[in-house]
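Feature request, filed as a ticket because there's no other form

It would be nice if the structure record came with a short human-readable summary line next to the tokens. Right now we just get the raw output. Example of a typical job, pasted below so the devs can see what we mean:
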Amino acid sequence: MVYHAIAWGHAATIPALIEYVGGEKTAVEESVDRLVSYMIIERDGEKVRALSVEESILKCQLKHAAGIPLEIENGVIKIPDFARNGDKP
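Raw output as currently delivered:
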């Protein structure tokens, strides 16, 4: 229910989600954290948004593939400072 509220544009913040789904704050935040860990939504403070299929796949590849020195932050692909300097993480 939480994912569908986000994906269908019914709620874009944690307070809006709580109101929309009618659940307890703790339960909604736990659901959001779980969806973030599944790499299908992104949370930036109180804001939440569904990731596209491409974003989700790329996040998964970056997390699980060794040796790829890239990060995704707020939908922007970045090269971390350690990679720019030639250091190892």
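Something like this underneath would help us a lot:
The chain has two domains: 2-51, 61-89.
The longest strand covers residues 41-44.
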